[in-house]
């Protein structure tokens, strides 16, 4: 099957059904016995708990409140009905700008159950980027926490179809469109929401890539994608069970966090601990001590911060499993966390396009510095530049296939054809070597994208941002490897005023990147030079700069 033409998808009449490119009899689907009916709606992951008799069990808990499955389903139904009362129609997009509280799963599953398509948006998104998301998706309604409502100003709303922002909390009077209080608006709405008769291959929700040199890409996921990750990763790696309580520090708006906080606990009838706000080490340890999670999800950067904090007295006795993903986990951090918790971190790797983890170590089978082995339900192939498979011990680009794979990027046929290949294969762009035991070892990217704090960053984008600052004469940004094997960005800068205080200049430039782009993209290391090395043609000599790279602490 050739790559999908998303221009044609846009022209389809509602409901916007998209063909799943992975064959139903694929080896991965057969391996886990995956099967869902043609008429399927992803809200079943939440609402099936009522039919299973779990209505009075705790679904979510945390500083933002506790909701049983019965209460959460009622909240989701109210929200779904509220959205329909605003004129939302089958397949309409609804932008979610929410932190991790019980309102998030209510909004997410309520929209899906009503036949709408929620967009999971990073709450660090500035108004200009928010404007792109609104314009690209055509969303007429957004649901936002009161703390973020001021982001919907004239910059964000101009040139979009946005009509209404439903605010969790008090409405923001300065918003550029109508705002409605969720508590007031949905208080008298019915808790009986008719289930939209969606096809399993119909759009369920979108997530956006972080973007690199160009605009971010809307990653389309289908109704059956979430249940596939539950039947593959959650059952075969996590061994998720009803008495589990999952705590994911990565937020729900990340694909990793969505699975950890909503898909896996709800599918198993377990509970989820939700922590809003900044995940500082002391708040995380306090949350673990108070809410007693059994499964903990983090990132290498988070585990690093936790092991450096005053953690000796932390009560981690409730944990049975600790998981890490998104970037390489160093042996030092692995050993430090084991010393604190008594548990070994289970490391894995996935992508937003695949929705969750497809490579993972396990408690029974693991290797240091390995991303892991193939997760049941997924097919993997290492291929060279010509697309031919390579053997063990040879470097190749990783291709992955499974029924959770996104079929397309919204309205981006060029990018879709680059990533979503024939018969449902996804070209990841990650370089790996596989050993004879089936473990995969990450070797870097096929392009220049690098992962910083678990998120992709394009060094050139940061470089162009720094170059616009009036105090910068010239600059270059490169990825460097830290002693603990994490990757970070280092900026080499020549200042207009060579006598400017370097510490002050570092803070100014880092803040400039944080506010102009997104906070996680700022260069952790800034080195000031009198001149940047040049090639014979006068271009910046990046090879010479690479020789200057030092593994400095972040």
Would you write up a description of this structure?
The structure is a single chain. The chain has 554 residues and is an alpha/beta fold. Among the domains are: 144 residues, Rossmann fold (3-Layer(aba) Sandwich), CATH 3.40.50; 92 residues, GMP Synthetase, Chain A, domain 3 (2-Layer Sandwich), CATH 3.30.300. It has 17 helices and 25 strands. The strands form 5 sheets. It has a 9-stranded mixed sheet, with helices on both faces. A 7-stranded mixed sheet has the order 7-6-5-3-4-8-9, sandwiched between helices. Helix 16 links the parallel strand 24 and strand 25. The longest helix has 17 residues. The chain is globular. The two termini are 46 Å apart. The N terminus and C terminus are likely disordered.
Task: Record keyword descriptors for this entry.
single chain, 554 residues, alpha/beta, Rossmann fold, GMP Synthetase, Chain A, domain 3, 9-stranded mixed sheet, 7-stranded mixed sheet, 30% helix, 22% strand, disordered N terminus, disordered C terminus
Specify Rg, calculated over alpha carbons. 23 Å
Task: Determine the CATH topology of the domain at 41-54 and 68-197.
Answer: Rossmann fold
| Strand-residue proportion | 15-25%
What kind of sheet is the major sheet?
9 strands, mixed
Number of helices: 17
Uncertain stretches: 1-15, 550-554
Mean of residue pLDDT values: 90
Walk me through the topology.
Blueprint: H1 6-11, H2 27-32, H3 44-51, E1 58-61, E2 67-68, H4 69-85, E3 93-97, H5 103-113, E4 117-120, H6 127-137, E5 141-145, H7 154-157, E6 164-168, E7 178-181, H8 182-185, E8 203-208, E9 218-222, H9 225-238, E10 245-248, H10 255-268, E11 271-273, H11 281-291, E12 295-298, H12 300-308, E13 321-324, H13 331-341, E14 345-350, E15 357-360, E16 373-374, E17 379-383, E18 395-401, H14 413-419, E19 426-434, E20 440-445, E21 450-452, E22 455-457, H15 459-467, E23 472-481, E24 487-495, H16 502-516, E25 525-528, H17 542-548
Parallel strand pairs: 1-11, 3-4, 3-5, 4-8, 5-6, 6-7, 10-11, 10-12, 12-13, 13-14, 24-25
Antiparallel strand pairs: 1-2, 8-9, 14-15, 15-16, 17-18, 18-19, 19-20, 21-22, 23-24
Helix pairs in contact: 3-4, 3-10, 4-5, 9-10, 12-13
């Amino acid at each position: 099957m050739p790559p999908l033409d998303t221009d044609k998808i846009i022209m389809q009449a509602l409901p916007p059904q998209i063909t799943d490119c992975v064959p139903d009899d694929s080896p991965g689907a057969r391996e886990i016995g995956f099967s869902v009916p043609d008429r399927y709606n992803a809200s079943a992951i939440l609402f099936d708990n009522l039919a299973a008799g779990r209505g009075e069990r705790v679904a979510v808990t945390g500083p933002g409140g506790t909701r049983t499955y019965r209460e959460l389903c009622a909240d989701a139904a109210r929200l779904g009905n509220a959205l329909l009362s605003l004129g939302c129609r089958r397949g309409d997009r609804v932008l979610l700008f929410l932190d991790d509280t019980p309102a998030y799963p209510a909004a997410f599953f309520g929209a899906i159950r009503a036949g709408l398509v929620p967009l999971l948006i990073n709450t660090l998104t500035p108004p200009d980027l928010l404007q792109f998301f609104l314009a690209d998706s055509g969303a007429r309604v957004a649901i936002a926490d009161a703390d973020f409502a001021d982001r919907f100003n004239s910059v964000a709303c101009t040139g979009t179809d946005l009509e209404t922002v439903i605010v969790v909390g008090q409405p923001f009077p300065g918003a550029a469109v109508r705002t409605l209080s969720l508590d007031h608006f949905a208080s008298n709405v019915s808790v009986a929401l008719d289930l939209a008769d969606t096809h399993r291959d119909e759009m369920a929700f979108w997530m956006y890539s972080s973007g690199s040199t160009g605009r971010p890409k809307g990653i389309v996921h289908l109704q059956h994608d979430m249940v596939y990750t539950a039947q593959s990763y959650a059952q075969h790696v996590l061994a998720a069970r009803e008495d589990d309580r999952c705590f994911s520090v990565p937020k729900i708006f990340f694909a990793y966090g969505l699975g950890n906080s909503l898909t896996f606990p709800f599918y198993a009838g377990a509970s989820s601990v939700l922590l809003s706000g900044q995940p500082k080490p002391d708040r995380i340890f306090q949350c673990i001590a108070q809410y007693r999670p059994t499964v903990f999800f983090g990132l290498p950067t988070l585990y690093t911060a936790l092991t450096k904090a005053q953690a000796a007295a932390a009560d981690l006795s409730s944990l049975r499993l600790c998981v890490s993903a998104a970037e390489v986990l160093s042996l030092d951090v692995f050993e430090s966390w084991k010393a604190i918790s008594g548990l070994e971190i289970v490391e894995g790797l996935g992508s937003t396009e695949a929705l969750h983890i497809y490579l993972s170590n396990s408690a029974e089978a693991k290797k240091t510095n390995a991303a892991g082995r193939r997760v049941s339900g997924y097919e993997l192939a290492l291929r060279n530049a010509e697309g031919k498979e390579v053997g063990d011990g040879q470097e190749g680009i990783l291709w992955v296939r499974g029924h959770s794979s996104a079929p397309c990027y919204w309205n981006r046929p060029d990018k879709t054809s680059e990533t979503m290949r024939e018969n449902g294969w996804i070209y990841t762009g990650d370089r790996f070597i596989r050993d004879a035991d089936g473990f995969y070892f990450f070797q870097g990217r096929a392009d220049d994208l690098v992962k910083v704090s678990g998120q992709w960053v394009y060094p050139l984008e940061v470089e162009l941002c720094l170059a616009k600052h009036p105090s910068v004469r010239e600059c270059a940004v490169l990825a460097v490897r830290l002693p603990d094997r994490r990757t970070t960005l280092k900026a080499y800068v020549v200042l207009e005023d060579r006598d400017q205080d370097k510490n002050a200049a570092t803070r100014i430039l880092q803040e400039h990147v944080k506010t102009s782009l997104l906070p996680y993209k700022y260069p952790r290391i800034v080195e000031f030079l009198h001149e940047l090395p040049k090639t014979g043609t006068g271009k910046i000599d990046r090879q010479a700069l690479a020789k200057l790279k030092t593994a400095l602490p972040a």
